[in-house]
Amino acid sequence: MQFQKEKKKILIIDFGSQVTKLIARRIRDLGVYSEVITPIEIKSIKNFDLIKGIVLSGGPSSVTSRGFQSVPKNIFLKKIPILGICYGLQLISKLNGGKIKSSKKRREFGRASIFKKKNSLLTKNFFKSKMSVWMSHEDAVVKLPQNFSAIAYTKDSKLTIIENKKQKIYGVQFHPEVTHTDNGKQIFKNFLFSICKIKKNWSVVSQKKRLIKEIKNRVKKDRVICALSGGVDSSAVALLINKAIKKNLICIMVDTGLMRKNEFKYTYKAFKEKYKLNVKLINASKIFLKKLKNISDPEKKRKIIGNLFIKIFENEAKKYRNVKFLAQGTLYPDIIESKSSTGSKTSKIKSHHNVGGLPKKMNFKLIEPLKEFFKDEVRILGKSLGLSNDICNRHPFPGPGLAIRIIGNINKEKIRILQEADQIYVKELNKNKLYDKIWQAYAALLPFKTVGVMGDSRTYEYTCLIRAVTSEDGMTADYFNFPKEFLDKISNKIVNNVKGINRVVYDISSKPPSTIELE
Fold first, then answer.
1. Mean pLDDT of all residues belonging to the chain
2. Strand order, beta sheet including 9-13
3. Which residue in 74, 106, 219, 389 is deepest, having the highest Cβ count within 10 Å?
4. What is the average pLDDT across 504-510?
5. Strand pairing partners for 27?
């Protein structure tokens, strides 16, 4: 996100937590503008007048180690309210004379019960009769800094919430930004409005004009190729760019052969006729299947697919004049899982075909107007651009498509099997009015066969895994608790109607520790 000088803001300093962006997300939900920067970048800020509060994120570092990540100590003298989260709490304590220790006895991971010790502006309306917060730390503050007091504690962490009321410095050992923390949003609400005294100044829809203006100023009279899949992300990008430059947009839909069954038939027609976009459909299924032959490593799959997309777009660009830009529907979760968008030490989880999977050298400049947005924010933006509900509410579908839902090697027969199983699954979700209750659902094909019995005969066929998760933004997720009757019905329908599958399993893992997709 570009630094918007004219806005009063909350500054989030990213120390490398995988969920730093969720802090920005929670603050946005409350209608306040925020920006994420690195610890290095804060040193270059000369004017703090518009900064109404500072949040120090969590991170993988330890303040007990040499060369730990830090901030200039003078930020505590600027009379700007500060909230430290996890590592941020420990850093506040370290820089203000407190004591931190690393010990297996003090480590907490997952849910922990929290208990109130005294009242605080930060915790107003936060505590309930039974409170659970989400922990992820090995270090703990064992001695308070001078002029700080303890507000709350857990069984293994006596200083779970601390404050210096006079200087408006606060710290929480848990992560209020994740949905696993009960009432975590209230912590941010209190910090923003009771402590920082900032007013609401941000909404998703209000960003539309800014994005269109930025695209127009950057592209000028050049042309843009937009990678259009028909999902809400690329569709929103296409409509944004169309509003900015109109005739100079060329949308390309690439049929990789790895999409859901009959995926492109409806969407291609809709974009041509309803949205009046300049759309070209390219059937490249043979090329993709050939390049992916005998490739089982998921990172290699993503890179092969990313490279092929770019080659196709570059070949198409040669047919037009002044094509200098490639537009993609990249979202923030794609970036945070592929690399750190802010330069901090965030661990890489996996490459995305449109981020870490892109070739190093391209003949295009990238336009990614949604790279600081979460999926649900894009849905709001999409609706404001006129996208229909069936596109806006469509479940996320990965750019590499079924390539990362067929675990191991890919061939035509496996694609057919999975397309049929997935179609049955999605149809039943819609039929039973469950589709809109779920963030993302899909079928996957596991890379082994098992013995079964059909009609008194032995079968040796594939196992189909079905997955369905609930989430707000894709950064954390939990499995959807289907009624037993639905699982019975799905298993029966898939096994009876898809030749090649004799077993169905349901994935009940959450994110973290798992990811939503299998690869």
1. 88
2. 34-37, 9-13, 51-56, 82-85, 169-172, 161-164, 149-154, 108-116, 132-137
3. 219
4. 95
5. none
Q: Given the structure tokens 């894709």, which residue do they identify?
A: 474
Task: Give the amino acid at 81.
Answer: P
pLDDT, average across residues 300-313: 91
pLDDT tens readout for residues 386-431: 999 989 999 988 888 999 999 999 999 999 999 999 999 999 999 9
> What are the distances in angstroms from CA 214 to CA 240, 318, 332, 380?
11, 26, 18, 19
Q: What six digits make up the tokens of 10?
A: 């909350």
How much is the pTM? Answer: 0.73
SS3 content of the chain, % helix, strand, coil (to 5): 35, 25, 45
Q: Where do the domains of the chain lie, and which CATH numbers do they carry?
A: 9-195 (3.40.50.880), 211-392 (3.40.50.620), 405-506 (3.30.300.10)
Which residues are within 8 A (CB) of 218 and not within 5 positions of it... i.e. 6 or more apart?
A: 325, 367
Active site residues: 86, 175, 177
| Per-residue model confidence (pLDDT) at position 104 | 62
131 Cβ contact partners less than 8 Å away, ≥ 6 residues apart: 113, 114, 115, 182, 183
Pair of tokens at residue 305: 């697919």
Q: Nearest CA to 55 among 89, 18, 7? A: 89
Task: Classify residue 126 as left (phi > 0), alpha (psi -120 to 50) or beta.
Answer: alpha
Question: Torsion-angle region of residue 36: left (phi > 0), alpha (psi -120 to 50) or beta?
Answer: beta
> What DSSP character marks residue 246?
G
Q: Is residue 309 a contact partner of residue 282, using CB atoms and an 8 Å limit?
A: no
pLDDT of residue 462: 96
Adjacent-strand bridge partners of 449: 462
Continuous H helices in 169-294? 184-189, 207-219, 232-245, 263-273, 285-291
Distance CA(507)–CA(311), nearest Å, equals 36
- Indicate the DSSP class of residue 144: P
Q: Which residue has the tokens 């996957």?
A: 444
End-to-end CA distance of the chain: 28
